[in-house]
Design brief:
The protein contains 2 helices and 6 strands, in the order ββαβββαβ. The protein is α+β, with helices and mostly antiparallel strands and 75 residues long. A 6-stranded antiparallel sheet has the order 1-6-2-3-4-5. It is globular, with a radius of gyration of 11 Å. The two termini are 12 Å apart.
Amino acid sequence: MIPLAFLPDGAKGIVRGIAGGYGVRRRLYELGFVEGTEVIVVRNMGAGPLIVSVYGSRLALGRGVAMKVLVEVGS
């Protein structure tokens, strides 16, 4: 598992966990980041927020929050 923030543009990952406190986990859950959900990185410039797609919706995530979303990348 690696943090979502490390995935390049166009990469897909499966959410496997959230490394954060209750507030962060709850907010991400409300946005659709639940275990087993596919996440696609639309834009990752290497600094600043990431644009990701979850359930067909595009969301901007701050890099600190994206570091807390642990994903599994298929081979």
